[in-house]
Every structure is written in structure tokens, then in C-alpha cells.
Design brief:
Layout (H helix, E strand, L loop, with lengths): L6 H14 L4 E4 L6 H12 L4 E4 L3 H13 L4 E5 L3 H4 L2 H10 L4 E6 L25 E4 L12 E6 L29 E2 L6 E5 L5 H10 L3 E3 L22 H4 L3 E5 L6 H8 L4 E4 L15 E2 L3 E2 L6 H23 L6 H10 L6 E4 L3 H9 L10 E4 L9 H10 L7 E6 H6 L15 E7 L17 H9 L6 H7 L4 E4 L2 H9 L5 E7 L5 H9 L4
Parallel strand pairs: 1-2, 1-3, 3-4, 4-6, 5-6, 7-13, 8-9, 8-10, 10-11, 11-12, 14-15, 14-16, 16-17, 17-19, 18-19
Bound molecules: thiamine diphosphate, ligand LVPVRBMU and magnesium ion.
Length: about 525
């Protein structure tokens, strides 16, 4: 960018360029060095050209902007120089690995101060590593990526506050270019095939499975888990004769949930057809025999193959429901199932990492095609950070959604509880956050480190009990809180939304989690 003579002019030029690029949401964290940009985005908000959110914690701000981006808004996060910039990094990495066009706007000292002990000055060019290019303004051109995050680093000098009032120019919003569809490639029928739909696979994976008559193994956040081919307990069927007889897999999106699926995709006797996924590293972590961007079939495969999977799925699902119903006390799977049933057509569900997304994978309700439910998660790096912030952002980005829900574990909730700190004038969405509170990290009890021989250090190293009183934590931010101990109480809470952001705490016991998980994995058709 050339021409701007003052920091205020530069800031106004940057904000105008963002408006012209379609940015409609800005999440700002307060600072001095970013004041020129802060005043400029405020003027744009006052002119009704964008919506401005303020969050004191840059981690929250960045994940809020990520959640907005996740549901299709064009969002930017803005902060001052120094460690504030580093606090954006988790969300920026998640955006990079999921191909989300998050705009990251960081204020910096002028280049002449770099390498000196000037206050609050570090090397911000390339601060997010090789995955995210920095545009160092005004020296570089302002160019926004559309397949991942863009880092705009703005060198700002004093004076940092404007001398006049700015009325941003009316801008022509660009029409979102429709991507040109790739050419169709025909997959031959014949091999016993399943479709694996990982995170963000989208409807094409479902459409292919339905047209071919293939079983659909779709994760809850795939965007494909609707219709009659989606199998509920697919991951319990892979270590069976049926699973072992798979000859070909068409894999789309980013599968991350389970080792049985990873093992299937890595089998030497299975042909893997990969549909490229979004994100910084599209290469698959398993051998791929063929890359097909837009696979199609001519005709349907042997219906007996799909029917065998459906029958096995019904059998295991019945056994799983009986097993869970016989458990003393509320199980996390029953919580996930109730939440899944509570997502109406047009509703949003943001799912936390760790056990909740995996529990949901086993019990998610059958969703009809076309009901436009949106089930999403931060599966790019499966972090437990920023989940509340992301859910609030996604809910804010869906003003016409029918209901907004989030499901997460207690450690995930605590990790981002600062997200409940909103200023009195901040716009708040309706969002019901269901926390599965088992007082620690249950997932580890189901992994190698949960084996009896590691019991001695387990709680200190992995279980991490905290004993936090979530009601008091919510009270501190005046967030309505509801504790439930049964499915009936949970369903009642879900059916009685308070309005605004609320927390429903479902208390469960993780002491028997490893045993419960082993009995579930042992189920067979
Ligand atoms: C930022 C981040 N830190 C640590 C981890 C490792 N991790 C994965 S799951 C988990 C515990 C999650 O506990 P909780 O949210 O209560 O879920 P639970 O498994 O108990 O249902 C941790 C620490 C991670 N994935 N991301
Ligand atoms: C706890 C972390 O992430 C791990 C969580 C589960 C994964 C797993 O193995 C699930 C087992 C299954 O259901 O099949 C595990 C993995 O992918 O190997 C993740 O590392 C963590 O520390 O990030
Ligand atoms: Mg937990």
C-alpha cells in the first residue's frame, strides 16, 4: 500500500479495503498501538458497514472471529502489538488447518524500531510461522487469502488518534465468486466400498454414497451425516467381518475421531480414493491410490452390501442403547444423545474436542437431508481451547438460526471460561452451552495411559480433577446456570431456554469410563 501519510490515513485505507473485501464483523481487543485501526473500525460500525465486538482477551477474540468465519461471515480480529499478537495464534493455526479465511489484523511499531528494545515491540512479521504469510503494511500489498487466514501487520506511528471524524465511503461489496466445479470423474462400481466423511466433508460425500448405494461413515461435524446411508455406530463395525471385507474407501474431509477409521484407511488391502480436503496440509497421513476432486458413479452398487451394514448398525445401536440405559447414573453418551435430539432443523451445534465429539459420534440422532442443521467443531487441530468463544461467534453469525447449542467437556469449558466475560454493551446470541462435567479429562482413561498400570500418576498427569464449582464460575459473569443429573432434567433444561448465553451442567462420573468404553467397543452385531 502506498500513499497514506499518517497512521490514521493508513488505518482508514486498511479498513476500507477490508470492507471492500466483504469483511462485516470485526472483533477488537483494546490497545494503544492499534488505536488508529480501532477508531476506523468504530467509524465503520457507526456507519452500519460492519459489526464491532470487543473482547479483552485476544485468545477469546480470535476464536470468536473464527466461529463467525466458520458459519460463513467474513470476520477480522484486531489487536495491539507484542504478546497480544501471540495470543491470537491458537485460533490462527486452527483457521490454517481448516482453510478458514480469518483476517488477522495486528498493530505494530514502525519497522525502524524492529530489533530494538522499543516498548511492546517484537518481530511480528511471520509471527504465525510458515503456514500464514504476513502482509506488512504499508510496505506490502494488502491481499486477502480465501483458503486460509491472512495476517495483516500494520506499522503505526504516533499520532495514534485521529484529528477528525471519518465517514467511511460507501463500498461495493464483492459478490462471492462461485468456485468453478471440478470435472466429474467416474468411479467404477464393483469393489466393496464405503465412504468416510471426516470433518467438513460436506454434502457431496453423502450424495456420492446415496447414488452409489454405499455405506456412509460420517463424523458428526462432516456436514454429511444426514439421510439413510449414514451409519450411527460405524466405528464399532470396523473390527468385524463386515469391516474387514471393505475393499475400497472414498475419503472426504478430515477424519480425526477414531483409530479404527485410521486403521481402515491405512490397510494395505484397501484402495483409497481421496477427495482433497480444505486446510494447509491437504496430503493424507495414509497411502492414497487415487485423488478425485469430484467423484461420481454411473448406476448403483449391489444393494446387499449396504443392507448388510444397515442391519449390523441397527443391531449394535440397539445393544448400545440397552447398555447405556442399564448404566447407573447419567452417562456422557446420554447427554450427547439428548443434545443431538435437541438440535432442531436450522439449528447449530458446536462440539468440543475430546470425549464429547466421540460420544456424539456413537449416538447422534438421525437427521433428514435438507433440514439444514449445522454441526461444527474445531477439528483442524482438535484443540480444547477457544470452544466457548467459537460457539458464541458461530451463534452470532447465524442470526436466523432456529437454536444454538454447544456441547463440551468440563476441562474444555474451563480452558475458555474467559469467553463468558462480555461487556455490558456487547451483542449476545442465544446459546445453550451443555457442559459434561466429569471433573477432569475422561478421554485419557480410554487411551493407553488409562491402563491400570498407570493408575498411580494418572490423576495428576491426565485426569486433572479441578473441583471447580461451575455455578459459581457462571455467577461471576451472571451467566444463567442449570445443573442436571438425569436425562429428564437435561431434556427439560434444553426445552426451556433462558435466552442469551446459558450453561447447563450435566454431572457425570468418569471413574468407570474405561470399563464402559471397553464394553461399548466389544459390542458386535
Ligand atoms: C489446547 C489443548 N490442550 C490440551 C489438549 C489435550 N487434551 C485433549 S482432551 C483433553 C481433556 C479434555 O477434558 P474434557 O474437556 O473435560 O473432556 P472429557 O474427555 O473429560 O469429556 C486434553 C487436555 C488439547 N487437545 N488441546
Ligand atoms: C487426548 C488427546 O487427543 C487424543 C484423543 C483421542 C485420540 C484417540 O486415539 C481416540 C481413540 C479412538 O476413539 O479410537 C488420540 C489419537 O488420535 O491418537 C488423540 O491424540 C490429546 O492429547 O490431544
Ligand atoms: Mg471432562
Amino acid at each position: 500500500m502506498t500513499g497514506p501519510t499518517s497512521s490514521t490515513d493508513l488505518a482508514r485505507a486498511v479498513v476500507t479495503a477490508l470492507l471492500e473485501a466483504g469483511v462485516t464483523e470485526v472483533v477488537l481487543s483494546p490497545g494503544s498501538r492499534n488505536a488508529p485501526l480501532s477508531f476506523a473500525v468504530h467509524a465503520a460500525a457507526e456507519a452500519g458497514l460492519l459489526r464491532l465486538h470487543t473482547r479483552v482477551d485476544e485468545r477469546t477474540a480470535a476464536f470468536l472471529a473464527l466461529g463467525l468465519t466458520k458459519v460463513g461471515a467474513r470476520a477480522a480480529v484486531l489487536c495491539t502489538s507484542g504478546t497480544a499478537v501471540a495470543n491470537l495464534h491458537p485460533a490462527v493455526l486452527e483457521a490454517a488447518h481448516t482453510g478458514l479465511p480469518l483476517v488477522v489484523l495486528t498493530a505494530d511499531r514502525p519497522a525502524r524500531l524492529r530489533g530494538t528494545a522499543a516498548n511492546q515491540t517484537t518481530d511480528q512479521v511471520g509471527v504465525f510461522g510458515r503456514l500464514v504469510t504476513t502482509r506488512d503494511l504499508p510496505d506490502d500489498a494488502l491481499v486477502l487469502a480465501d483458503d486460509g487466514p491472512t495476517h495483516l501487520n500494520v506499522q503505526l506511528d504516533e499520532p495514534l488518534v485521529p484529528a477528525d471524524r471519518w465517514v467511511p465511503p460507501a463500498v461495493e461489496r464483492p459478490a462471492r465468486p462461485e468456485p468453478r466445479p471440478a470435472a466429474e470423474e467416474v468411479l467404477p462400481l464393483g469393489p466393496r466400498t464405503v465412504v468416510v466423511a471426516g470433518d467438513d466433508a460436506g454434502p457431496p460425500a453423502r450424495v456420492l454414497a446415496e447414488r452409489a448405494g454405499w455405506p456412509l461413515l460420517a463424523e458428526p461435524t462432516s456436514g454429511s451425516r444426514t439421510g439413510d446411508n449414514a451409519l450411527r455406530c460405524y466405528r464399532l463395525l470396523l473390527d468385524t467381518d463386515l469391516g474387514r471385507s471393505v475393499e475400497r474407501v472414498v475419503v472426504a474431509g478430515h477424519p480425526t475421531l477414531s483409530r479404527p477409521v485410521t486403521r481402515l484407511l491405512s490397510r494395505a488391502d484397501v484402495e483409497v480414493v481421496s477427495v482433497p480436503a480444505r486446510g494447509a496440509w491437504p496430503d493424507r497421513p495414509f497411502p492414497v491410490d487415487r485423488v478425485v476432486t469430484r467423484p461420481v458413479v454411473e448406476g448403483r452398487d449391489d444393494p446387499a452390501w449396504l443392507e448388510a451394514w444397515r442391519e449390523a448398525d441397527r443391531s449394535v445401536a440397539r445393544q448400545l442403547d440397552r447398555l447405556l440405559a442399564a448404566e447407573p447414573g447419567l452417562t456422557p453418551h446420554e447427554v450427547a444423545a439428548a443434545v443431538s435430539r435437541g438440535v432442531p432443523p436450522g439449528g447449530l451445534l458446536y462440539v468440543g474436542a475430546s470425549s464429547p465429539v466421540r460420544d456424539l459420534d456413537l449416538v447422534v440422532a438421525r437427521y433428514d437431508v435438507g433440514d439444514r442443521r449445522k454441526v461444527v467443531a474445531n477439528r483442524g487441530l482438535a484443540g480444547i481451547d477457544g470452544t466457548i468463544s467459537s460457539a458464541i461467534g458461530a451463534a452470532l453469525g447465524r442470526p436466523h438460526g432456529s437454536r444454538n447449542l454447544a456441547l463440551m467437556g468440563d476441562v474444555t469449558f474451563l480452558h475458555d471460561s474467559g469467553a463468558l466475560v462480555l461487556g455490558p454493551r456487547e451483542v449476545r446470541p442465544d446459546l445453550t452451552i451443555v457442559v459434561v462435567n466429569d471433573d477432569g479429562g475422561a478421554i485419557f482413561s480410554m487411551l493407553e495411559q488409562g491402563a491400570p498400570e498407570h493408575a498411580d500418576p494418572f490423576e495428576v498427569l491426565f485426569g486433572t480433577p479441578h473441583g471447580v464449582d461451575l455455578a459459581s464460575l457462571c455467577a461471576a459473569t451472571r451467566t444463567p446456570h442449570w445443573r442436571v443429573d438425569t436425562v429428564a432434567e437435561l431434556e427439560h433444561a434444553l426445552a426451556s431456554p433462558n435466552g442469551g448465553i446459558e450453561v447447563v451442567e450435566a454431572v457425570v462420573d468418569r471413574r468407570t469410563r474405561r470399563d464402559l468404553d471397553e464394553r461399548i467397543r466389544a459390542l458386535r452385531p
